Sequence to fold (494 residues):
Amino acid sequence: MNMQFDVAQNGALPLMTRPCAPQSCDQCGVRDRAICTDLSDPDRDALSRIGRRVTLHAGQTVMWEGDDSMVVANVIDGTLKLATSTGDGREQIVGVVYASDFIGRPFGARTPHSVTALTDARLCLFPRGSFDAFARDHGDLQHRLLQRTLDDLDRTRAWMLLLGRKTAREKVATFLLDMARRLQADQAGTIELPLSRQQIADILGTTIETVSRQMSELKRQGIIALVGRRGVRLVDGAALEALAEGV
Amino acid sequence: MNMQFDVAQNGALPLMTRPCAPQSCDQCGVRDRAICTDLSDPDRDALSRIGRRVTLHAGQTVMWEGDDSMVVANVIDGTLKLATSTGDGREQIVGVVYASDFIGRPFGARTPHSVTALTDARLCLFPRGSFDAFARDHGDLQHRLLQRTLDDLDRTRAWMLLLGRKTAREKVATFLLDMARRLQADQAGTIELPLSRQQIADILGTTIETVSRQMSELKRQGIIALVGRRGVRLVDGAALEALAEGV
DNA sequence: CCGGCGGTTTGACAGAGGTCAATGCATGGT
DNA sequence: ACCATGCATTGACCTCTGTCAAACCGCCGG
Fold:
């Protein structure tokens, strides 16, 4: 099906080589949305001292499927994909994460999926062992992590319905609505997808050609408008909603 | 695709009407595997007093998708399915749970999927509010719940690869290996599937006919043997493993 | 032991979507 | 401003799997 087209883009990981200058949590952009939000000031400082700010370029992979789980992180900025693949290189994106989301596998030995930057991104990175220890001692942090994990699980299960039972048309409609919900539209109502057609196909469990054909068809019907390579404007949201549910 | 064929089997829920006689945790069959395992004796007693033992018959549904999240439970015995469906009745099973697993949506207002007994089952049922409050006060319980949720999420994401990228053959092979891993084989090496062909199809995101055809083909090749309606013996496990990965 | 029910298997067919291939066209570098 | 490159679109074709339908057969009750 599709090859791991972006492996070649991955340079050496900057994790060890380019820690940014230590930066306080005070001016952190996700300060009031990340899992560390409701820690007390001294606790947050302690956690902050465990972690490092790290910058990623689009295409770089932070963790690989099956690796030992060495680090976890908060996403400060940017969009990343979580993916797994079959032995022969078919890839399925199992999650897309945004600013303030948490990535990595705490309390477990293995990273079950790769994590790759789709855009340039900044992370607040923690060694897993230290993070685990810290979390065990801080009930609210653990509670927030649990909340997030439960939400992730709900979203993931909802996506299984899409993968297993929806038609290509329904998949694309659902995807567009999902993106519109997460992304901020500009003044013209256009959203900029952080994903290529190939990546969209990898999320929807289909092919690039099918995604393209479905989008063209939606455009032909006047339900969406395509602007440039990655821009989309949802012209008739209600129609999309209907298609997403398969009516 | 497939209709919700088993809705008709659902009698009135026994949840309110048939609480079993209070029963201590001492003789609980999942005592050392459920999330309550490492609570202190008094704590476990306290939790036990919040909950009730409840018996379900095969086909009965405990919670419906979209309902307010009123209860959570430990599975003491039996097998249940978690499912979501599209507006027009296509169903996707998003999880199968066994003895000692935890079900329901703690810390959230809505139940994101239905929960239905596949076999007769026994639950240790808690009102969600009380359970949430208890869990917040007991870090180890919450930690165990987090562990389980993280494991569930890993498994669920692995299943997304199957739904999105695997062929019918690979799906069936993966399913059989997964069941063999979970279920206890009898002396002849035969496992008894707790699922009908329709339910298998609903797990794999395919149809009953495709499942049947793939199983027949595997049997023809001597890789598995079918015994009766629900029995399967994995004759050539290595061949199955190879098929599951798509080689 | 038999008969009927409900799940399962098998067959024939069709269509959605995958594959292969060519063309089109944004985007970024010079 | 232009071109080159790589992504996206479109087309033709084919296959896998879904659909419809009939035959089959475990399993249970009488």
